[in-house]
Amino acid sequence: MLKIASITLTEINLPLVHFFETSFGRTYERRIILVRVEDADGGEGWGEVTCGEIPSYSEEWTDSAWVTVEKILAPMVVGKTFERAVDVWDSMRQARGHRMAKASIETACWDLEAKKLGIPLWRHIGGVRTEIECGVSIGIQDTVEELLTKIRTELDAGYRRIKIKISPRWDYDVIAKVRETFGNIRLMGDANSAYSLDNAELFKRMDSFELMMFEQPLAFDDLLCHSKLQAQIKTPICLDESIRSPADALAAIELKAGRIINVKLGRVGGYGQAKQIEEICRNAGIPVWCGGMLESGIGRAHNIAMSTLAGFTLPGDVSASKRYWHEDIISPEVEVTPEGTIIVPDGPGIGFEVRRDRVEKISVKSVIVEE
């Protein structure tokens, strides 16, 4: 039983160790909204709004999410009593969309509930593995040589899958050089919606690289054209931005719009929705994996928990804190073994301690929503 007494929003600024470039542009630092949920007994749970600073990946962005959580969603939850954390989603149903904002509250409530029960969050959501495989996402670089250096560094660190961002100016020749240099490594290309169906011939040519997948090559809200492209190429298409709900997953499977699905907690709205998507895909024989949004340690901890679900059979984007941050906001920081895995923490809730002193030091603003 959860009686939500207050929700605290805190915006922090975290500079990245190295800029991260996709087809959307370059990111040098992250403005991140942390959400702390407290119940009437004084217990707390933590979540994170994972949207970007501008509405490029999705319609949500940092400033819109702050207003949405503070003025609309938090008042729908504060003061209410819930039998289970999964019920929190329904209390916010009146607000359409804004899944990343909703997920910040919903995931915090799952953390709170697991802590109250004294069990690890990953067990509480139904996870089945104590160790997860890790891949890395490498952004577009200034030169191919820089990209090759970064790939070598990550392979030497043990990571089990390399994802490189691609765009119309950074695709065929770049992948060819990576294959020539590193041979048959587990490699995939993430387009972040940078192409159209007119580029089908290019994707047919890139079949020769035998990639694990092309992630979201076409429009962010498209299923039909992805279905047409998948029918023409051998390389599996992985859907990311197009899948926001269990209904989207069912539609994608029926349309044969892709053979793999990337699940992001924020994009789909939290654990309740993610678990439904995972089950749908598992029953249909569609592998899923956990995508990343340059999260702080709190969001990263939630990604670790989700990655323990049975359907998450491919290495995700969950990697070590030090790849992104000079200093994270959790203790201990997320570390990857030399074998390219993360040992799932066994403490209650997310299994990491939030460093309140660190959060306060880099806090830009904070507000408490209460009755």
In short:
The protein has 371 residues and is of the alpha/beta class. It contains 13 helices and 16 strands.
Describe this entry's structure for a reader.
The strands form 4 sheets. Strands 6-7-8-9-10-11-12 form a 7-stranded parallel β-sheet. It is of the alpha/beta class. The chain is built from 13 helices and 16 strands. The model has no long low-confidence stretch (mean pLDDT 96). It is globular. Helix 1 (62-77) packs across helix 3 (99-117) and helix 9 runs parallel beside helix 11. It folds into 2 domains: 2-118 and 356-370, Enolase-like, N-terminal domain (Enolase-like, domain 1); 123-343, Enolase-like C-terminal domain (TIM Barrel), CATH 3.20.20.120.
Average predicted local confidence, pLDDT = 96
Which fold name fills CATH's third level, the topology of the largest domain? Answer: TIM Barrel
The number of helical elements comes to 13
CATH architecture of the largest domain: Alpha-Beta Barrel
What are the SSEs and their pairings?
Blueprint: E1 2-22, E2 25-39, E3 44-49, H1 62-77, E4 81-82, H2 88-91, H3 99-117, H4 121-124, E5 131-133, E6 136-138, H5 144-156, E7 162-165, H6 172-182, E8 187-190, H7 200-206, E9 214-215, H8 224-230, E10 237-239, H9 246-255, E11 260-263, H10 265-268, H11 271-284, E12 288-290, H12 297-306, E13 330-331, E14 341-343, E15 353-354, H13 356-361, E16 363-370
Parallel strand pairs: 6-7, 7-8, 8-9, 9-10, 10-11, 11-12
Antiparallel strand pairs: 1-2, 1-4, 1-16, 2-3, 5-14, 13-15
Helix pairs in contact: 1-3, 9-11
